[in-house]
Amino acid sequence: MTERIEGHGGELALAALRAYGVREMFTLSGGHVFPIYDAAHKTDFPIYDVRHEQSAVFAAEAVAKLQRRPGLAVLTAGPGVTNGISGLTSAYFNASPVLVLGGRAPQFRWGSGSLQEMDHLPLVAPVTKHAETVFSTDDIPRAVTAALTAALTPHRGPVFLDFPLEAVFSVSDAELPAPPGIAPIEPDPDEVTRAAALIASAARPVIIAGSDVYAGDAVDALRAAAEALQVPVFTNGMGRGALPPEHPLAFAKARRVALKGADVVVVVGTPLDFRLSFGDFGDAKVVHVVDAPSHRAGHVQPAAAPAGDLRLILTAFAEHHGDRADHTDWIAGLRTAEDAAKARDAEEMAAETDPIRPARIYGELHKVLDRDAITIGDGGDFVSYAGRYLEPAQPGTWLDPGPYGCLGTGMGYAMGARVSHPDRQICVLMGDGAAGFSLMDVESLARQRLPVVIVVGNNGIWGLEKHPMRAMYGYDVAADLQPELRYDQVVSALGGAGETVAKAADLEPALRRAFDAGVPYLVNVLTDPTDAYPRSSNLA
């Protein structure tokens, strides 16, 4: 069913966007996209603006991740689009349904040297599911509908449209298509049965659940499958919190023990990438469950690889009626390892050291974070500690850059999270290196009254590089930052507030002041530069 509407290109685009539930845009002002602003202004459609285009795309991605609907960034032509490409690439790796609308120099003068004249498509096509230049005003609703349909179709991902100046400024009447229903991908029932039988009959199975479990609204189905088959569950990405920490099948600390001892490893909704040893779990059989056939791993031959709607697959696992092994002893052994690791972590998170060790910061955060707080990781070494010491209690409460590992997500993610959840705690965990990428956008948060808490682990170095380089070469270069830099004063100058903490006993009061402040507030924690997060190299 379609309706016919009349308006300039911005009005036609906005009408199509509203039909998909898009409720806000993130942008940095540019003349090439004025008609889109005009359409929003005249209809009270919220506009949030930033100081760097990457933050606009990251904010749109946070909305897409948290709300499981399209997020919108509007960027002006040329450098506006190129500044947003890191955000687009992160969204591509994270399967986030983000739409970037770009301005474009006028087509009728193409090749004459107009301001910011550039063909964006060759740059964005490799990191989007759909990229198109819309040359005709009356074609804009069709193009927006097609792009958003592609973004929401598993395997999800970002899309891009740009509009030549004359197309977006001109007036036309056009058909507004109704959003087509996106049918779930039906998995091969034989492959699902094969996978379920492997899991049920395994002596020591393990489930690792990732971001697509949350994105595909399959959290309840995951819990049902784990409980029915009695399989311990570990999580990564936005899969974190799918089972609350107190659930008897939820594990976080014993992953190394589990993967070393498992005979079947079930990876659901996350790629077999460097975070999971590229799918190599020794002698264990691998079951890889993905939301679309296109996302099956090409470098691993799994024992079973069901592809399709994750809810359908996991529900079928839960309803499997074949023979089942008893996993009681396996789960009990992992629980013993988990409890021992938690005890060690508790000691580290309570450590009285001078200078402060990163673990202590997370020990104090445990005391002040609500169960539904949104925590955002933007950093390398400092955020690695967050992955170890913070256990989200609910799904959809953890944001990090994902497998692309792009720094600078922090302030954009914070903006998108605050817009998505006005009444929750929003806490950005940021390394002092990452602060250099996006901290200026605190001004955007302060000006638009979007309070968040930023905790900076300030060790004065690029920790993820300095320690490994010293281990490899006996020296390091390009790995030092200014020690004890006052990032809190930067935030205060930009309209927020903050303080520097050098003693562990001062952490909890500072964090409580931060969450009560009602403005962007940065707690600048001076941490031990010799404390290196233990890790194996990911350089391979």
UniProtKB/TrEMBL annotation:
Gene Ontology molecular function? acetolactate synthase activity; flavin adenine dinucleotide binding; magnesium ion binding; thiamine pyrophosphate binding
One of its GO biological process terms is:
L-valine biosynthetic process
- Cofactor(s) needed by this chain: thiamine diphosphate
Q: Among its keywords, does the record have Electron transport?
A: no
What family does the database annotate? Belongs to the TPP enzyme family.
Q: Which PANTHER family match?
A: 2-HYDROXYACYL-COA LYASE 2, THIAMINE PYROPHOSPHATE ENZYMES
What protein name does the entry list? Acetolactate synthase
